[in-house]
Amino acid sequence: MSEYIVSCWNCLGDFDAISAVWCSDDPKNPTKLCPFCLRCFCQASEKYKQEFWRTAPPRLHQEIQTLAKSKDRLGDILIRMGKLTTTQLLEVLAEQKKTNERLGDILVKRKLVKPEDVQAALKTQGVSTLADTHGVEYAASPVWENSDPTNIIHYIFGLAARKGASDVHIEPKEDAIAVRYRIDGFFFRVDPIPKDFQGAIFHKFCDMFSLDSSKPNRTQSSRLTTRLNDVEYDLVLQTLPTAHGTSVAIKLINRATFVKDFATLGLELDDRVRLMEELRAQFGLVLITAPVFSGAGTTAYSVMSHLVQGERDLASLENPILWRMEGARQLDVESDSRGLRMEETLRSVVAIKPEVIMLSAVPDAATALLMSQLASSILVVGVMAAQTAAQAVSAFAALGVPAQLLSGTLAAVTCQRLVRQICRICRQPAEPPAPQTLAHHGISAEEAATLQFFRGKGCPSCNKVGYRGRRALFEVLTGAAEVRSAVLNGLSPAEIESLAVGVGMMTMRQRALDLVREGVTTFDEFSKLRLAV
């Protein structure tokens, strides 16, 4: 096949994907660049990408596999440095396969890069280092060999606290130990730790978190409370055996900021009023929902805090307990071969007759049915995964809860997403997206005229990514008569949402557009949410 004609997801123009240039956003997983609007389809919908690759000719599949299988990180690094293109790398990899020469030698021989570019790339070792403005020892390029396991771990945690990391991943590789930080949804690396430290570091973690060092091939979890840079943190650790050793993931919970009031959480005034009204009720079903990793757990603890401060007798069923809250009876729900024993634990808790019961998950149909039955006489709050509030209602009903029972007990459903905020220090105006792109996202020319478009240039304050901090977007669907009737009649999520909007609900989509309009976030962040019109 000499041509593969596709339509650009952005400008809708037709072009030949075989002759088009590969983009260089992700060297291991590139996409094609539209010759008309010069946009790749990294930000296109998953449906578009699946359709592109489903009908793509073998040549494109072979090229993408060549890039993915390349074990030499030099090419990836040079692409990220802007010294090489993905198309050039493909040509050199094909030559390397025939000659077995070193990749750097071929690049220099072809005059694609300079020798000093290769040396600079090798020196970075493929890491996106954090800009440590405090000038802490080992900050720019940690000299691990001059340290010891205790100081290495203290440095890793100290840098995480300074940079506001939510998670730290320590991952053994074939020849080193990778260290990754998750900050505002982005992953960053520091230089890898030499492999020689692997055993000593694992045993040091075992000592710190009271793990069983004799069982490195078993998953273990633990937690401790400590001070990092004069701030108190809970560190929640999880180990995972891998082919190259035990991987360690640590979640950092800032004890001073973890539990938030509803305003700090991000709920707008009208949503706060609607939610608090339902939480004051003596009975009813409240669902706290979000896609995975979008903050539903944090919201659940904020709701728990609100109820405890209101002196409600509350029992919370959790797995695991991430935060100990004074005034609440928290139970760590066990698991067995059948899964999470939530229903069994819930039946046991009913005997103590609390005013409110909270569940950190709705794992099965039996639990959902029992929650709905209990919500006829007490307040029941549950956490589950969903894309929108209306979809959460339908998903809960799909677990087998009778429509009449759910309609009679539904009090409120919250759903949320997290969006990155533009760095205030390096924020600057941005070019508006093409009219076709705006139309693709359901934005008319009239609405587009009300929007402002900004971006972050990238600076040390935001680790050169242009974003700093995240905030939650909410929608709160309440059990108004129109919504209850829709549930009773088995209407679709789209119909339920339409009725909820009619009685006052502001959707997450509209909230997100408001943040674009205010210059708080970018249009790219809005488009990543994939919120339907």
Report on this structure.
With 533 residues, the protein is of the alpha/beta class. The chain folds into 3 domains: 5-123, no CATH class; 144-254, Beta-Lactamase (2-Layer Sandwich); 262-416 and 473-508, Rossmann fold, CATH 3.40.50.300. The chain is 37% helix and 23% strand. The strands form 5 sheets. It has a 7-stranded mixed β-sheet with strand order 11-10-14-15-9-16-19, with helices on both faces. The longest helix has 15 residues, at 149-163. It is globular, with a radius of gyration of 26 Å. The chain starts with a strand and ends with a helix.
Comma- or semicolon-separated keywords:
single chain, alpha/beta, Beta-Lactamase, Rossmann fold, six-stranded antiparallel beta sheet, 19 strands
Quick structural summary:
With 533 residues, the chain is α/β, with parallel strands linked by helices. The chain is built from 21 helices and 19 strands.
Number of DSSP E strands: 19
Number of domains: 3
Mean pLDDT: 87
Task: Give me the Rg, rounded.
Answer: 26 Å
Specify the CATH homologous superfamily of the largest domain: P-loop containing nucleotide triphosphate hydrolases
Low-confidence stretches: 124-128, 131-141
Provide the structure class. alpha/beta
* Proportion of beta-strand residues: 15-25%
The top-level CATH class of the largest domain is Alpha Beta
C-alpha end-to-end distance: 38 Å
What coarse outline follows from CA principal-axis ratios?
globular
CATH topology type of the largest domain: Rossmann fold
Helix content: 25-40%
